[in-house]
Amino acid sequence: KLQFLYLIDNPVMVGPMMSVMLCAAVAAAAGQPAHLRPKGGGACTTGLDCQLNGACEAGRCVCDAAWTDAHCEVLHLLPTPPGAASSKAYPPSQNMSSWGGTVVEMNGTYHLYTSEMGGHCGLGAWQHNSMIRHAVSDTPEGPFTAQDEVLGYFAHNAHAMLDEAGRVAVWYIGSGSPSGNHPYISNCTNGTTPLPTRRAAAAAATTAAYDSAADTTTWHVRVGQTPHGPWTTQPVVCNGRCKGPDNPSPTRLQNGTYMIASIFRTTSSGGLWGYTLATAPSMYGPWVKIGAGGQNWSIPSVWPPKKCEDPFLWQDARGGFHIMNHCYGGYGDTGGHLYSADGLAWHQSPVAPWNATVDHTDGSSTEYLQRQRPKMLMRNGQFTHLYTGLPLHNKNDPFPWQRWCTGSGMTTPDCDLTETHVQAIYTGA
User: Fold this and answer.
1) 311-342 pLDDT, tens per residue?
2) Strands (E), 328-381
């Protein structure tokens, strides 16, 4: 039974082997692209020294297909075709924005459930215009074609999976209706949000309290009898706290029960951050929070120095637990990785499992300013594709009108045009 969880984020606490691993991993982070790095070979005493992404055999890490580098700390992403927009999964139009999503494969068709910014707005309008869109493709790479609307604005951070009955369950935050201080924005035209409107939206987001009873921070699930619906709202039963944590990411464990990870934060701009974990016998509950004492989080705050969100939780074939996430601090606004052998003691990788640079098949690369909302597609027991939210503005400057874009682009003109990006993961084939 899981009772206490804690984060080991100090190399001194985990002994000399982990300290050596941390130094080697940091050095490797500045090295070659993922697909050219050595696949394992780092010194180890247990699988923890290989971040549970491989096995420790004869004192050396042997990485699973999806992972690479000396201690299996980097996701083995394959190069994409050349061009900044070459691996755009959704939306198909240049005058729309989306922000990550989850893909479910059924009978040879790939179904994407994504956060789409309605009204041709950009990401700056997410708290006003985000809705959950269903799109389809014959391939996991897309492009995906828009189908039905799972839920209207405001709904965000779609996480889709099949439930026990084989139905599509889409977890999300929001209530399907706009809140009082985040009305729908209707003056967008080209996939970006006009600057004065975006500044007002950002101000509203900053001043809004993270109310534990608010719909924007409550677990919700939409269930479809088919991948196209019809869609109904499924109640979630909790023994304790379902409100407050957001961006829920459930997964089915090897024993048939479920675990969920979601972020808990006390304020929008800082305060205490951590992950709430809960378990349940069924996808829809009753969910029981796991962790120590009366804290709202099961894994304590990882800020400072790393402020992480957007969890993607899974259990690997050897029984280890993992959370892939997006981190603002320390990793450079890209990926993060937490791992645990038993679900009790958690370790944080010192290296981003993926960064903001996308390598291309012709040897070139595109360096984006950020890369968030990680979700992975699993087929036949292996992860095959990584889906993330990407802003189209990047340091390669492919669009002349984006030359002034800096940082997140939330306060500069025409810079919040975003896409759901897909990149294949090495499978050994």
Assistant:
1) 999 999 999 999 999 887 666 778 999 999 99
2) 334-340, 345-348, 357-359, 365-367, 372-379
